[in-house]
Amino acid sequence: MTAAPCGDAPGGGRYGEAVFRPEEAGEGERIDFGALAYDGITMARLRALGVGPGWRCLDVGAGTGTVSRRLLAEAGVASVLAVDRDVRFLSARPVPGLDVLESDITAPDFAPGRFRLVHARFVLMHLPGHDRLITALAELVAPGGVLVLSDAIDLTSDRTPGTPYSAVMRAMWQGLRATIGTDVSWVPSYPHLLRGAGLVSVAAEVHVPPLLPGSPISHFWADTWERSRVAMLATGLVDDAAVDAALRYLGSDECAALSAGMLSAWGWKPEEGPR
Ligand SMILES: C[S@@+](CC[C@H](N)C(=O)[O-])C[C@H]1O[C@@H](n2cnc3c(N)ncnc32)[C@H](O)[C@@H]1O
């Protein structure tokens, strides 16, 4: 599929180009640190929703494929189609039952079939037109199936204590917004958006991993900050010294902060017509 839609970042950049380039050393490890922090929660939710033997699954923006492979190995699903704009990490670790498709999910002709589970984690927050994408992904859910979408929620507020951590987190969200269009402001609206896409029995939950020195989520943020350092500096909110101070703070026992969380929302496709 070849369509190349424009991002809605002010600079017109896209995920994987200006920032988070898959060809850069360590990008797969960065995604894996996020997976280490969140895979247990994701798998518990998917299992609680009944995902298991016989299910055909679609994992959108599958990254390194940790969830795709765990669906096969632990939940015993029939198959997983793992889609990503760049499949180098997926292709590097093939397993039986895992099919890999290199495709841009924002392309108007993205239509890989119908699935009992459609899952996307930390993908839609980086893409333009999230409401259209939610509708398009809901279309890919077979009757009786479930759409499960997870993205980050920013838990800083104007009363968050001023620490090196909070200054850099603010600069990160603003810098990513300006360079690749990342926007987490709408993520708390997921339940409403899923209902609007015609799904029923909609619900959501939030998980915030503990921000402890040396934890996977601390490694994930440290690596994410390094990769988005140029974008953060361009905001004018922080300088190199502030980023370095935040990295030291994150790795120290002084760290006393709240990580961004993961909101997971799900909704079911009615078997026949609206309930
Ligand atoms: C932050 S990673 C999340 C990976 C995985 N879902 C996880 O949670 O571990 C975002 C992934 O979405 C992919 N992605 C971004 N834009 C995409 C697009 N337009 N079409 C397909 N995949 C995309 C990226 O290549 C990357 O692998």
UniProtKB/TrEMBL annotation:
Leader peptide range in chain numbering: none
GO biological process terms on file: antibiotic biosynthetic process; methylation
Record's keyword terms, sorted: Methyltransferase, Transferase
Listed SUPFAM superfamilies: S-adenosyl-L-methionine-dependent methyltransferases
Pfam families documented for this protein: Methyltransf_23
Domain of life: Bacteria
Single GO term (MF): methyltransferase activity
Protein name per UniProt: Methyltransferase
Organism of provenance: Streptomyces avermitilis
